[in-house]
Amino acid sequence: MTKHDEYESPLAHRYASSEIKKIFSPRERASTWRKLWLWLAEAEKELGLTQITDKALEGLRSNRIVSDEAFQVIAEEERIRRHDVMSHIFALEKDAPDAAGLIHIGATSCYDALRLVLPKLAKVIHNLSIFALKFKDLPTLAFTHFQAAQPISLGRRAAQWAQDLAMDLEDIEYVLAGLKFRGAQGTTGSQASFMEIFHGDTEKIDRLNEMLCEKAGFESCYDISTQTYTRKVDLRIANALSAFGASAIRIATDIRHLAHDKILDEPHEATQTGSSAMAFKSNPMRSERICSLGRKLSNISTNFSSTFSSQWLERTLDDSAIRRIDIPEMFLLSDALLILLDDVTNGIVVFPAMIRSQLQEELPFMATENIIMKLVHKDVSRQEAHERVRVLSRQTVEEMKTKGTKNDLIERIKGDEFFKPIWDDLDGMLDPKLFIGRSAEIVEKYCGSNGPLTRKLEKYKDYIDSTATATLAV
After folding, report:
1. Which of 108, 140, 216, 396 shows the smallest number of beta carbons within 10 Å?
2. How far apart are the first and last CA of the chain?
């Protein structure tokens, strides 16, 4: 039997990076437990626990990385004990016999992948910022209700995408900054076992937790824990990452719509095939994949909400199996989306001629308000001007829909004596840049060198400058 004969998660196999897969690999997870047990033993020895010897600590340090042989022991023991933590303790005691009976004097839980996600998200935002500034004054048709609306600039639209992702960056940073260590709390959070170990010396227990936080890189422990840290922590992280998943869908959906109109396109390889049947097709498969993976991520917080709300009293084990699936998947999905978004946002192809063509089809309608106001300035009744424009506009739309004609509203206006006072002004009123308001200024203020987006990304500058655009595996 080969790997082709058993199911393998496409998320890990096809989409996520090696970095994120390593964080959630069995070896990394098991070795993290051993690292935590080592820290606990070191701190307890420093605080006077005499049964922890230098030889025991050396055994823990030299076996901190779980070997393939140890995994075999763990698998066999878990089949016997039906308890994964105890099977890992048994394997470590076999690797480090001098530490036998000392491991797991206390215990803690920890997970981390947010630091990997954040700089990747910052790079995507940076890509969009560059794009927004490049096209800050290129007029393009806007859409409300997916119907033609007052034009904006293409860069202004991209700045909107960047702002959504910047909000996700803020949320994830906030969650990361709020993470604390569970620390040495005992089986139900009362610290009773540590009262026994340290003979009622509460100052030593407090110092133990301070030392553990220092070793693990946390500022403090959660004030209240039970047998685990509260699963509210998982839910807060899931909410932030799920919100990012929704942003990814939002952006990719816009790109898919614009690709349909041939306004812009995502990057394509020269040999990329769009359809097995229709050879002419060039589908936005990256953006479609973003929507697909984003749909999974944007809804995964529901699982974490259910897991948190279903915990009974000081803890039940129905959180365990689903967290083994959901926590890695939550981060692998985020990582996969960031790889795709980095690739897409760094290589968006713009078609200015198509943008102009689409805009010209609708621009005469957009100009009607200005035409009415120009007539009013020529002492023409606004009500009469509005009615004349309405009638000609409806005639134009009818011809466009039923006969497929071009938008000839301006020609109709030029042929109607009622509008003679402004005939000479009409062509000058159709410059697309007259309709995009402060779009360019808005982009410059937000994405420019002194803008809030640039300041927000400053801490990630080294990563952004030194990291090449992500490459898709498939």
Report:
1. 216
2. 25
